[in-house]
Amino acid sequence: MTDDLLARIAAALERLAPPPAPSADLSGNSFVWADRRLTPVTAARAQPLDVFAGVDAQRDALLQNTRRHAAALPAHDVLLWGARGMGKSSLVKSVAAAVRAAGHDLMLVQVGRDDIGTLGTLFDAMPPRRALVFADDLSFEADETQYKALRSVLDGGIAARPDGVRLVVTSNRRHLVPRAHADGDAINPRDVLDDRLALADRFGLSLGFHNADQDTYLAIVARYAAAHELAFDESAALAWATGRGNRSGRVAWQYIEEIAGSAGRRLD
């Protein structure tokens, strides 16, 4: 086979091959990791930290830990667990935004549950910057692969993560797994269950978020209303929550959206 023929074959194969994916711009602050690709995204609007009510201790603890991490000081992996709609995810985004606004370089990388098993590949793809890897609304049932991948990262396996990376996980379950779950085929199901429940113990900082009582709910509404210069009626706010069968920060914000929209006001 002649050199000319080999060159033509190589050129034909190159034309058939898909072009390489363009390199992602890693100079931004917000990213999504999916399908083994790190993609920059436009960050969602973050609420100012002073509008959070009913979770003051949790807010302050997360902010302090994130500041330490951004300053290259010892900091913990964080688990935010508890009631739905009490601001766990919003608080992570707002704290990251506040720390950046204070002059720190901090990436926020969101990872879906199905991509937990590729965290090692993510770490290889990340630039040498301080970063929070954020897994939202995480829980495990019988999927051992994802569970073990997360445990390995938290334990500090052989393939170590970068020093500049800390994990922040939100979950409605304190232990990330249901207490009633156990592997019926295991030799000792109790050992399997204890091992899974111990996953939460591997986070250095665990912050609980609890259902709002009436006073807390009204305090959240009042904080939002004051921030947006809106008047509200307590009885109407309570009726709104009753109609949704829940009192939470999310329901409080939905009520604020309702009264702002009814008044023809924008929420900037």
Automatic annotation (TrEMBL):
InterPro entries: DUF815, P-loop_NTPase
UniProt keyword annotation of Nucleotide-binding present: yes
Keyword line: ATP-binding, Nucleotide-binding
Transmembrane segments: none
Organism annotation: Glacieibacterium frigidum
Any coiled-coil regions, as ranges: none
Annotated protein name in UniProt: ATP-binding protein
Recorded GO MF terms: ATP binding
